[in-house]
Amino acid sequence: xxxxxxxxxxxxxxxxxxxxxxxxxxxxxxxxxxxxxxxxxxxxxxxxxxxxxxxxxxxxxxxxxxxxxxxxxxxxxxxxxxxxxxxxxxxxxxxxxxxxxxxxxxxxxxxxxxxxxxxxxxxxxxxxxxxxxxxxxxxxxxxxxxxxxxxxxxxxxxxxxxxxxxxxxxxxxxxxxxxxxxxxxxxxxxxxxxxxxxxxxxxxxxxxxxxxxxxxxxxxxxxxxxxxxxxxxxxxxxxxxxxxxxxxxxxxxxxxxxxxxxxxxxxxxxxxxxxxxxxxxxxxxxxxxxxxxxxxxxxxxxxxxxxxxxxxxxxxxxxxxxxxxxxxxxxxxxxxxxxxxxxxxxxxxxxxxxxxxxxxxxxxxxxxxxxxxxxxxxxxxxxxxxxxxxxxxxxxxxxxxxxxxxxxxxxxxxxxxxxx
Length: 420
Prior knowledge:
This protein has 420 residues and is mainly β. Helix content is 13%, strand content 37%. The protein has a domain at 270-405: YVTN repeat-like/Quinoprotein amine dehydrogenase (Methylamine Dehydrogenase, Chain H, 7 Propeller). It has 3 helices and 29 strands. The protein is elongated and about 135 Å long. Residues 100-123 are annotated as: Disordered.
């Protein structure tokens, strides 16, 4: 800037400041200034990254804890061979338990074959005697770790047996006994347990529910359930349905088809007991008679709510419900009376008219009746003795007589094993 004539310009005297800055120096200064600003920590109102990291750490710790707990639980359950069935039913009480194979190294070993169980009449029947299974040929198999049994029957294929325990304060137990003696538990803590004739299904009462499941090997699969009245219990399988007695103190039955919902509203109020099934699917049972206190023998139609299609009220039948129909559907062994004496009766179902032929067949029956063919049957009497019935001999006026079962301990009762 030029000044007035005769005066110096307005710049001060002394050292002059240089304004010449190289581009690289300016760039370096700017970088340094920005780096100082970045290193300054300024408080934030929110820290999304920190929150995400802390949340991830909490989730990881929680998953780790749950995984360790589940691993410990699975280890305990596998060590005991135990898995709960029907969890989440929303009811209180002892759970039904399915138990796997705990230790295959402790299998019982069959004992040597012994004579004494052969049948001179050719009737084949297995027995459980004091935790020992006795086959018709006399072979004995020790069944360890099972309690007293009330029912047993052959598995499909004949490679083992299903065994139902007697009732205890903890309920009933269902075992699978393999043909090498290995015993496994399918159910524990159940109420009434009913097996299908072919051993492929099982129904049981548990608390306020009725369950049905398939039996495959040593497992129960496809369980279905329905709530039932307090006194109801399963009685038998009728095809794929379950016959349910609604009240043990009076007549009243219904048929429940698993998977079709709750118990049907249609109820039969005449049937007292059902003894068996005919080849055409109809049932043979005991119904209430018109006379007070009397009963009738009837053929029932399950497709019409157990309505009787044939009946006869002349035979004097007891109300204990013990009876069995022959494999061809012609003969019925049932408990009744001849005069004042209690007897097992043989009735020809093809002549069920007004006056059916009821022939004394032997002493009164207990437990299962096993028909090995159309004309031969086996049962146990009140004393635990074995009674072999031959239809031809009985009709000829020669009732069966009991014979003691060998090697039965005092106070023990053998159990017949049903086949199909």
